[in-house]
Amino acid sequence: MRVIAKLDVKPPYVVKPVHFEGLRKIGEPAELARQYYEQGADEIFYVDIVASLYRREILFDEIRRASADIFVPFAVGGGIRSLDDISRMFHSGADKVTLNTHAVQQEPDLIDRAARTFGSQAIVINVEAKRWDGWWECYTDCGRERSGKDVMPWIREAEQRGAGEILVQSVDCDGRRAGFDIELISQVKNSVSVPVVAASGAGSLGDIVAMARKARPDAVAVSSVLHYGLCSIQDIKNALKDGE
Amino acid sequence: MSRTIGVVDYGSTGNIESIRKALVAAGAQVRIIDNACNLSGADKLVLPGVGSFAEAMRQVRERGMFDPLISAAESTPVLGICLGMQMLARVGYEFGETPGFGLIDGEVRPVICKAAIPHIGFKQVRTIGDSPLFRGLASDAEFYFMHSYEFVNYTDVSGLTIHGEHQFVSAVAKNHLFGVQFHPEKSRDAGIRLLKNFVEL
């Protein structure tokens, strides 16, 4: 299983939101990306968590700096609204992109066009799921805005439109370090045939192994456990291997 | 040694910056080539790899690089990466049927297997024959894959990889033309070593 280091960025810092709010400053993107790369991360996800919220331009120079020394895939998201944005990302060091707010709230068709131009393998759908009674709702703008869209039909639609991967985040569990929403991840995994990246909630190696065993995602993305030095990428890889 | 590597920029597709950085790390001087006139200035060419087959071929033609690239490939070593490898084929079936450069015989078809598609992650390559690209690399070296289509080829296979229960061609080589389905620019030290082998050919 791939182990991905996810950097939530509020330029110029990597931050860690709790429940997608209450930001805490962690460090500089380039430094942390390099550190997790050296620990053995299979990929780095860089998500500008305020670009959509503030409706501001994507900061391409920040992406270029953060990805400079990284020779594993570097996925970038936050604030993407057009094919031109995506193309500029590829020219700034990105290898794939994550889409959420714009595709969910305004133009689902952006997924089709992006897949046709850049190939499905480069298009990751970032889901910020909020649990309600018996269903999950897609949130956007870093867990601030409701969309009314049900997560499971949405990801099936996104897959139909050409998305190549689904990143599942939980608005309820993110940053709490109290375990994953395993049911959410399982249902997502069972709903699509593209790879699923599980995120939000890891507080220990045990949380990660338990989630991996039950939900069987294709990858796990972690942030807090790395930021707070609770374990390293290598620890996670070893634990996952032992847990199989 | 001829170390000036031309990286072909089709337009909106391709992870150009990642390729450029990795080639520099492998000791190359890099020139980005976005029109036919600049092709002659490079000792070797790299066709990069993020995009869909139909769109990348359309952009190559739009920039007037289709025939000039084929001519250049007669004498210039070429390394195709991922989609860039697939573009060497005769035909591709991503978003319709589109002719490729036809430099290495074969066709590009969807990967069909039970495991998750796109195929994403680090995998080993079983090398076939003695491709100079893999010299000095450990047999258990892993490379990063990220693709939904594969190069179906029966004549110029230099590497094979398994995804789930499905084996596919992960490297091709024919004279001075090379293609790899994985991304050496995203494969840590092993990838840089492979690029270095190409740069130093």
Descriptive overview:
The complex is a heterodimer of chains A (244) and B (201). Chain A is α/β, with parallel strands linked by helices. Chain A has one domain (2-243): Aldolase class I (TIM Barrel, Alpha-Beta Barrel). Chain A is 36% helix and 29% strand. Chain A has an eight-stranded parallel barrel, surrounded by six helices. In chain A, helix 1 (29-39) runs parallel beside helix 2. The longest helix of chain A has 11 residues, at 29-39. The radius of gyration of chain A is 16 Å and the shape is globular. With 201 residues, chain B is α/β, with parallel strands linked by helices. Chain B has a single domain, classed as 3-Layer(aba) Sandwich (Rossmann fold), CATH 3.40.50.880. Chain B has helices spanning 16-25, 53-62, 66-72, 83-86, 188-199; strands at 4-8, 29-33, 44-47, 78-81, 91-92, 98-99, 107-110, 119-124, 126-127, 142-147, 149-152, 157-163, 166-174, 177-180. In chain B, the strands form three sheets. Chain B has an eight-stranded mixed sheet. A four-stranded mixed sheet of chain B has the order 6-5-7-11, covered by helices on one side. A two-stranded antiparallel ribbon of chain B has the order 8-10. In chain B, a hairpin with a 5-residue loop joins strand 5 and strand 6 (98-99). Chain B is globular, with a radius of gyration of 15 Å. Chain B starts with a strand and ends with a helix. Chains A and B meet through helix 3 and helix 5 of A and helix 1, strand 8, strand 10 and helix 5 of B.
Write a concise synopsis of the structure shown.
Helices cover 36% and strands 29% of the residues of chain A. By secondary structure, chain A is of the alpha/beta class. Chain B is globular and about 45 Å long.
